[in-house]
């Protein structure tokens, strides 16, 4: 199958972000003093378990970032391949059955019949009101009432079994690698992992991995023949929407930071380092911006952007490009409203740093301002940047849902947790309630945000040991219980 | 003291001017009034006459910054900048797109907003401090650990979930209180209970955790060790010494949001159908009523700045060591 790659604006920025992270990781690996705090992150059980879950979200998000336009089959056999206007991602292609198996309206999870009665013409004339069979969900069953439970059980069991096999392979190979590194026998490494006394908490990672793989395996085995999380008003599969929402959530959480980071870093450091009128100006700038309540500033800016986009439709060639640009703008706006906090922190830290002896020494040797800032100050404030970045992430994911509800979030055609909740909210009053879309959006969001929070907690604890975070508590607690046992 | 307050208020003026300039740029320069008119009247098939009429009805039929058609001072005053932006300093807010007086709407909607926001604020403060103190009292035990786990879990749940879940459980399943609505006087209590509880719960995770950190920081100080060395029981140390001293950052941190309580909460009010300023703002955003949004932005920053000034004053009141200069 031929295709034409498409790089949307947000895709390009995601690639930049991945490149930045790779370069950063490479730098960290080479310097022991940079590596030490990351090692502490690696030793936190909650942090590593959270990272395992985050990895799954990130893989789905990255798959959804590689966009392309598949070729259309043209009958006249022309040499020029024609490409569809529809922009698809790799995830869309992998989940083709999910994307294309669209019912007519609501259906509950694992249902074989629609959720609403419809008037059906009987073959022999006459009409009857009944719940019609779904076109795709459980369509392979002859007698749904009798077969449904056993069919779901066998499929889920098979999927979970395969997942367990995969887990077994991963766990064995990781254990083998660890054993090789520690120069131990395989069985003794296995037993230390089993007792949970390895420095890197492999047991927590394996348990989390097993849970994810079991759930994922069962879901994968079932999702092509059932709507495992039901369908929405226009019959779209809710599971597919949840998967697509992950990219939107991740993008808003990361790109916003990427957007604001240069401003916050440069302005904050400049204000603290140069002081005087530069400081006054920058302080005035961020005091003014931060004195406008965040939601209102975002609402005002997004409204204005909406008007601009409505009055200039010629700027966007496809719907995807338009929705994508709107997402990017939302990130920029969120960045503009949230850089002030980081800027203030960085200014304070730089004020402290510039009085340090080594900076004074650099000054006395005639090192240029630019060099002092880039060599001595920025590396020493990076831990603040890092902590703020990971701490902000979860808040931004949650904010997206609220903003979409207010009506100033992502484009209505972009699938996100916010748009899912917004659409499902209207069905609250329905009797019996349509609960699955809300359930799906909230549980995916909870998993993402909780793991981000736990990871942020571990990072904060590793880089700023004064904070009394969860990981610190768990460690003293564990030490206590180990001491008691000994 | 008075000197300081006056200077603080004078400092606030350039910030308000800045806010005003930002809103002016956003609402009138990025998109001209013509664009707004086109948006309101529908993008397609809109005649220049219709645009001119809309602009005249809403008072946008003047030049942006400088009016050459007028004489003398009117060159500056008969402009959109002066009549729409500068007028806000005199609290002349003008009319919304549906013709209602914005200032009157704000006055009548302030009370319902306050009726929710104030109980949430007071109750929240008490509940969070109580929970944080409990966790600190049992620090480094199961209670503390699972308390923090609970806080992190509560933080990870979307505020929309609390509202939707609460409405479903309390109102729809158990029929304890009405789902939404509002009425005057004491009768409104039954409408307010649920939004207040949900408001308190939805901010519980982050705040309790933050207060716990503050208490723990206070626990590490020298006077606590002295108090313990005197032989005071742990409860006396905690409730008499630590609580009092940790209340300083907590209360001064809370002062900044007091003026903002008038604005209410956007989503809680709109979900529960409370006719407050929050739902007013949401309605304005949904109907793209820029006049109202502009006023709310200005009002929000004004109240925030008032909050900042109050914070500085409250610092000196609770902690005499801080001198204002």
CA(first)-CA(last) distance of chain B: 9 Å
Number of helices of chain A: 17
Largest sheet of chain B: none
The main sheet of chain A comes to:
4 strands, antiparallel
Dominant shape of chain B: globular
Specify Rg of chain A, calculated over alpha carbons: 27 Å
* Element-by-element helix/strand order of chain A: EHHHEEEHHEEHHHHHHHHHHHH
Strand content of chain B: under 5%
Q: Name the structural class of chain A.
A: mainly alpha
- Quaternary structure of the protein: heterodimer
Describe the structure.
Chain B: The chain crosses the membrane at residues 9-30, 114-138, 145-171, 191-211, 246-272, 292-318. Chain B: It comes from Nitrosospira multiformis. Chain B: InterPro entries: BPD_transp_1_N, MetI-like, MetI-like_sf. Chain B: Its main location: membrane. Chain B: It is found in: Cell membrane. Chain A: Pfam families: BPD_transp_1. The complex is a heterodimer of chains A (486) and B (325). Chain A has 486 residues and is mostly helical. Chain A has a domain at 238-473: MetI-like (MetI-like fold). Helix content of chain A is 70%, strand content 5%. Chain A has 17 helices and six strands. Chain A has helices spanning 9-30, 32-42, 45-63, 90-94, 96-100, 144-182, 186-195, 202-223, 238-274, 276-291, 294-311, 319-353, 357-364, 369-406, 417-425, 436-463, 470-485; strands at residues 3-6, 67-72, 82-83, 88-89, 118-121, 127-130. In chain A, the strands form two sheets. In chain A, strands 1, 2, 3 and 4 form a four-stranded antiparallel β-sheet that branches. A two-stranded antiparallel sheet of chain A has the order 5-6. In chain A, a hairpin with a 5-residue loop joins strand 5 and strand 6. In chain A, helix 2 packs across helix 16 (436-463) and helix 3 runs parallel beside helix 8 (202-223). Chain A is globular, with a radius of gyration of 27 Å. The termini of chain B are close together. Chain B has a domain at 114-318: MetI-like fold (Orthogonal Bundle). Chain B has 325 residues and is mainly α. Helices cover 70% and strands 0% of the residues of chain B.
């Amino acid at each position: 199958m031929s295709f034409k790659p498409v790089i949307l604006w947000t895709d390009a920025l995601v690639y930049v972000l991945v490149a930045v992270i790779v370069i950063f990781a490479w730098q960290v690996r080479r310097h022991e003093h940079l590596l030490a705090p990351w090692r502490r992150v690696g030793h936190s059980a909650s942090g590593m378990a959270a990272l395992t879950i985050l990895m799954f979200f990130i893989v789905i998000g990255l798959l959804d970032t590689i966009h392309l336009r598949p070729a259309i089959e043209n009958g006249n056999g022309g040499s020029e391949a024609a490409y569809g206007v529809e922009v698809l991602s790799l995830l869309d292609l992998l989940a083709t059955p999910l994307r294309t198996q669209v019912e007519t309206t609501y259906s509950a999870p694992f249902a074989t019949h629609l959720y609403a009665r419809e008037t059906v013409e009987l073959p022999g004339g006459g009409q009857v009101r009944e719940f019609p069979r779904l076109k795709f969900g459980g369509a392979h069953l002859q007698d749904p009432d009798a077969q449904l439970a056993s069919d779901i059980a066998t499929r889920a069991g098979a999927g979970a079994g395969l997942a367990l096999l995969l887990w077994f392979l991963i766990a064995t190979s990781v254990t083998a690698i660890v054993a090789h590194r520690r120069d131990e026998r395989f069985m003794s490494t296995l037993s230390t992992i089993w007792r949970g006394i390895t420095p890197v908490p492999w047991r927590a990672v394996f348990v989390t991995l097993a849970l994810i793989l079991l759930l994922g395996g069962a879901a994968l085995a079932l999702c092509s023949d059932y709507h495992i999380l039901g369908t929405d008003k226009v019959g779209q599969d809710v599971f597919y929407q949840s998967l697509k929402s992950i990219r939107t959530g991740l993008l808003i959480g990361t790109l916003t930071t990427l957007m604001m980071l240069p401003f916050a870093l440069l302005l904050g450091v400049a204000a603290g380092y140069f002081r005087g009128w530069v400081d006054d100006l920058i302080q005035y700038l961020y005091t003014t911006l931060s004195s406008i309540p965040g939601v209102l500033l975002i609402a005002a800016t997004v409204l204005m952007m909406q008007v601009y986009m409505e009055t200039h439709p010629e700027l966007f060639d496809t719907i995807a490009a338009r929705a994508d640009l709107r997402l990017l703008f939302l990130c920029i706006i969120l960045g503009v409203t949230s850089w002030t906090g980081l800027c203030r922190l960085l200014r304070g830290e730089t004020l402290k740093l510039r009085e340090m002896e080594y900076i004074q020494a650099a000054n006395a040797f005639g090192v240029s301002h630019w060099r002092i800032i880039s060599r001595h100050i920025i590396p020493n404030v990076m831990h603040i940047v890092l902590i703020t970045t990971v701490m902000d992430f979860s808040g931004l994911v949650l904010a997206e849902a609220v903003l979409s509800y207010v009506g100033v979030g992502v484009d209505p055609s972009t699938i996100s947790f916010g748009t899912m909740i917004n659409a499902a909210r209207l069905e609250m009053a329905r009797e019996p309630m349509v609960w699955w879309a809300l359930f799906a959006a909230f549980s995916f969001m909870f998993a993402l945000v909780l793991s981000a929070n736990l990871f942020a907690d571990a990072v904060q604890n590793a880089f700023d040991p004064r904070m009394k975070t969860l990981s610190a508590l768990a460690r003293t607690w564990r030490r206590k219980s180990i001491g008691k046992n000994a | 003291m008075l000197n300081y307050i006056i200077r603080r208020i004078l400092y606030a003026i350039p910030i308000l001017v800045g806010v005003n300039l930002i809103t002016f740029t956003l609402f009138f320069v990025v998109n001209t009034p013509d664009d707004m008119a086109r948006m309101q009247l529908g993008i397609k098939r809109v005649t220049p006459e219709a645009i001119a009429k809309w602009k005249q009805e809403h008072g946008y039929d003047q030049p942006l910054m400088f009016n050459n058609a007028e004489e003398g001072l009117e060159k500056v005053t008969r402009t959109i900048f002066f009549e729409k932006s500068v007028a806000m300093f005199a609290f002349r807010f003008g009319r919304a797109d549906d013709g209602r007086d914005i200032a009157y709407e704000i006055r009548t909607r302030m009370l319902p907003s306050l009726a929710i926001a104030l109980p949430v604020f007071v109750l929240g403060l008490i509940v969070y401090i109580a929970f944080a103190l409990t966790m600190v009292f049992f620090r480094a035990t199961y209670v503390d650990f699972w308390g923090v786990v609970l806080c992190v879990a509560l933080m990870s749940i979307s505020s929309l979930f609390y509202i939707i879940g609460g409405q479903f459980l309390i109102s729809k399943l158990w029929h304890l209180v009405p789902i939404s609505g509002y009425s005057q006087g004491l009768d409104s209590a039954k409408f307010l209970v649920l939004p207040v509880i949900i408001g308190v719960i939805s901010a519980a995770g982050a705040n309790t955790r933050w207060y716990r950190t503050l208490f723990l920081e206070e626990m590490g100080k020298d006077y606590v060790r002295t108090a313990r060395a005197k032989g005071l029981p742990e409860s006396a140390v905690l409730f008499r010494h630590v609580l009092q001293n940790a209340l300083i950052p907590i209360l001064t941190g809370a002062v900044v949001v007091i003026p903002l309580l008038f604005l209410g909460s956007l989503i809680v009010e709109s979900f529960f159908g409370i006719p407050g300023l929050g739902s007013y703002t949401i309605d304005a955003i949904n109907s793209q009523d820029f006049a109202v949004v502009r006023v709310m932005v200005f009002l929000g920053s004004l109240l925030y700045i008032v909050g900042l000034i109050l914070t500085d004053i409250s610092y000196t009141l609770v902690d005499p060591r801080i001198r204002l200069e």
